[in-house]
Amino acid sequence: MDIVLVTAVISSLFIVIGAAEPLGARLRLPFTVILAVLGILIGTAALFFLRTDLTDALNPVAEAILGLPIRSNVFLYVFLPTLLFQATLGMNLRRMVDDWVPILVLAVVAVVVATLGVGYALFWASALPLAACLLIGAIVSTTDPSAVVSIFRSISAPRRLARIIEGESLLNDAAAIALFGLFMGFVMRGVPDPKLIDALARFPVLIVGGALTGWIAAHVAIRIMAMFGNHELALISVSVALPYLGYIGAEQLVGASGVIAVVAAGLTLNLAGPGRLPPQAWVNLREVWDLLAHWAGALIFILAALLIPRLLQYVRLSDFVLIGVVVVAAIAARAVILWGLLPFLTRIKASPPVDPPYRAAILWGGLRGAVTLALALAVTESLRVPAETRRVVGILATGFTLFTLLVQGTTLRMVIGLLGLDRLSPIDEAMSRQVVAVALQTVREDVARTTDEYALTHDVVRSEAKAFGERLEGAVRTAEDSEDILDRDRITLGLIALAGFERDTILERVRERTISSRMAEQTLLNADRLIEAARAGGRDGYRRAARRSVAYGRSFALAGMLHGRLGWSAPLIYLTADRFELLLSQRLTLRDLDSFIERRIRRIHGRRVADLMLELLARRIEMVETALDGMRLQYPGYAERLERRFIRRTALRFEEREYVAMREDGLIGAEVFTTLMQDLAARRVAAERRPALDIAVQRFDLVRQFPLFADLDDRSIRQLGRALRTRYVNDGSVILRKNAPVGRVHFIASGAVELETAGQTWRLGRGELFGHLALLSSHIRRVEARAIAPTTLLLLDIERFRALLERSTALRDAVSESARKRGLDPDRLKTGAPEAS
Prior knowledge:
Shape: globular
Mean pLDDT: 78
CATH class of the largest domain: Mainly Alpha
Radius of gyration: 33 Å
Keywords: Cell membrane, Ion transport, Membrane, Sodium, Sodium transport, Transmembrane, Transmembrane helix, Transport
Largest sheet: 4 strands, antiparallel
Strand order of the largest sheet: 1-8-3-6
Strand content: under 5%
CATH topology of the largest domain: Na+/H+ antiporter like fold
InterPro entries: Cation/H_exchanger_CPA1 (IPR018422), Cation/H_exchanger_TM (IPR006153), cNMP-bd_dom (IPR000595), cNMP-bd_dom_sf (IPR018490), RmlC-like_jellyroll (IPR014710)
Subcellular location: Cell membrane
Low-confidence stretches: 831-837
Number of domains: 5
Region (Disordered): 816-837
Structural class: mainly alpha
Transmembrane segments: 29-49, 61-80, 100-123, 130-154, 174-191, 203-222, 253-272, 292-308, 320-341, 361-380, 392-416
Number of helices: 33
Number of strands: 8
Distance between the termini: 99 Å
């Protein structure tokens, strides 16, 4: 084949790809539908010119088009890893972790249901063996992620719902291709009636093997990329190699699913990359992958569409009946998931509620695409598959894909309109009127200032000002006459806008390197949670999300347990240092939000709403300061080192800004500028390094601050510091339950605890203890202890506590005073005699 012609054809396909996007926007059709139609037209035209006697001039071009190296291996080994890897890099994984149950259930269960539904429907309607029918079911059970994403963007679906469906559409490709590999093996070995239990038993092996391969490959790649931190092109080049090596390694060396390996590698890099790679390098890496995925997705679609005329040239009339069976069975299987499984997950609170109009949009929007065609092509190319099976698989998969693209894809926007999903809600519509009024007022002030500065003609200014004033007056009157926004709704909308501005502020701080990329992920996660909580629960939801942002998570409890029981301190040190930096980053961001409330919220929603939001913001700042003070008390000196690090990073940012300004003004040349920037980069690496946290030393300083241990010498305090175990509890967590045995004394390092017994309550704070009365008496204490703030506790077992009592007069006095406050006899406690009460 002439290499010149092939190069010309491929280059021309890029022109087609470039024209498809604006054409799709003009025709209001999905981009993938336009690509499929153009590919079919090009493939049909090539076949026509080869078989016609009208002219032979275009035969070389037609032969070059039909002779392109379009094989299933090209799709599966070249294009598919790129698409899957980029999709995982673009996902907000920390938010998806909150919804991992519905995502995994929908991804796995939906694929299995669709595979079985289509497979058994075909088995009853055709003469194909069951293995071939299930193979077709696995091929057609994959949805096109890009189509799903474009659907939800077009209907402005709730973020959490969109996130769940996007995650499901990505992961179901992996599950479907794994099932495809299983059933393809049965068909090639001539097993007509496979046992589903045996087939599904191998499914976890493919999944686990692929996941481990991808995870290991990603960690190796991240280590290499971190070594190339100052060489951005080298770093990006390593990321390009990662999905392909992971795919090939899983398929050829491990015998697992290469698709799962690519997904696992992408997820791992998404989670670990921002904290290990330079921020700008990570941004550029994402941009490169977005471009690669755009090209790969477009090429795989148009090249697969070129094959459609050839795949359908042997179609029979009876095949149309089977295509109808596949269409009905696939839609029915998806309906079972949407109207059966999703409501069940909602009832058990594992998934957000999905309204019927959204379910209908998801059902009709289940477009199939290039992955389906690529898998069908793999079957048609295999000589170990019977000829009739190859023909039927190619025709059914192609016919079903065409139905989803040409019928569902072209009517999807109309269906969305009929369902009312393309219209703003009454609240959003009223809100838009308010925003227009405020925006026009700001524009009028800016235009007036501009006309004064440039001394424009008075008559022209007056004429334009009159026209603009009439428009502004109409907008203000419309906004004031609106009765659609209640005060409650105004507060909700204001809080959503405030959380959105907080998110933008975080991104700006990351670009300035004031907030580290490691903390950016967590702070952005908190901002996203605030947005969704305000949208779902209004003021109360916002408050709950704000409390969650400063609370200790389950990971702290696990790290504390590992430290206390196994002596493994690394997770606790890592999480504690992260918490310090997170709280400092939150404090930095929150200080900038009051100006946004004054500038924007007050003008849109009024003084009362703005004052309420300022009060909520003040409470958030107070919560962060309280949590930070607790950490400072627990680890004195560490917060100061982090603040010094922040000042050094800020100074470096200002220094860089000055060098750039001098270079732009021509005050320094390129050589001097390069030298200065290299020196600054070296100092920035040192400033980015987070100071180490030594829990043992910090606990020694903390124990010194307890008034209870004031009379102990340094040796005793060190021994006590080694014996104490740390426990972190969230606001509202139960520490001790009534009638439960008490095994340790609890010292409050930071936070507050409420004790309740016999209808009476006591509140204890930093430096106080509880649990000792039950240990020093033989009577079971009916006391419940509950944290009323994020609290850090130090725990000591009874034997060491008794020994400590003998050495510390201050501690004995504190125990006696505590007993007297609760109506107990201190002398009887010390002797261990039963209590009178």
